[in-house]
Amino acid sequence: MLEKFRAGWAAAMTPPARLLLKLGVHPDAVTWAGTLITIALAFVFFPQGWLWQGTLLITLFIFSDGLDGQMARMMDRKSTWGAFLDSSLDRFGDGALFGGVALYYAGPGDSVFWSAMALGALVCGQVTSYVKARGEALGMTVRGGLAARADRILVLFLGTLLTGLARSGHVPEVLHWALPVALCWLVFAGLVTVGQRMAQVHRQSPAPTSFNAQAARPESPRADGTV
User: Fold this and answer.
1) Which residues are annotated as catalytic?
2) Which of 140, 102, 145, 147 is nearest to 122 (CA)?
3) 3-state SS string for the chain
4) Which of 29, 98, 103, 186 has the fewest CB atoms within 10 Å around its CB?
5) What is the pTM of this model?
6) Mean pLDDT score, 89-101
7) What is residue 226's predicted lDDT score, i.e. its pLDDT?
8) Which pLDDT belongs to residue 227?
């Protein structure tokens, strides 16, 4: 859903990208810094129940995911390594976010069920990314789906923000259900997206060749010794 806003986001990232390049910062350093800070904030704030505070702080850093790419484009140094590093570290960042939510429900949130749902949403998101990567490695085109990574992060952040504000009394108490609803949606959307991407790969896969067992079976020797 959010993929259509990629061009506008790239334009918004241009000024900070230009500033960092002038300061001599390498895109890979931005990738590492954004990921490490995201992991630290997710595991410090979410398990303590500081949901809305953690969400606002993490938002400042998680979007470095687009900043490093814009820096690389401006340097005209797009590389296979940079793309690989970015995708790999994204998995760590996602794990920290959903893991932090799972720890919140294992602690102050006091719900084994919703802790399990957070882990389920994490697994669905990881499989979604894997299916895309595996399909493309096989030469297929795998795009879109109900919930890409940006969509999943946005839904999770809306849930943590509203539930955190509701727990703090800043918004109506009924909104404490925002995070559980978000987790339900993420599990559902993740499963649907995996199915959509698997269907794309299936449609592009060559038809299996028929196998004639009788033809493949070696002929028995004849009486004269010939085959």
Assistant:
1) 90
2) 102
3) CHHHHHHHHHHHHHHHHHHHHHCCCCHHHHHHHHHHHHHHHHHHHHHHCCHHHHHHHHHHHHCHHHHHHHHHHHHCCCCHHHHHHHHHHHHHHHHHHHHHHHHHHHCCCCCHHHHHHHHHHHHHHHHHHHHHHHHHHCCCCCCCCCCCHHHHHHHHHHHHHHHHHHHCCCCCHHHHHHHHHHHHHHHHHHHHHHHHHHHHHHHHCCCCCCCCHHHHCCCCCCCCCCC
4) 29
5) 0.85
6) 96
7) 44
8) 40
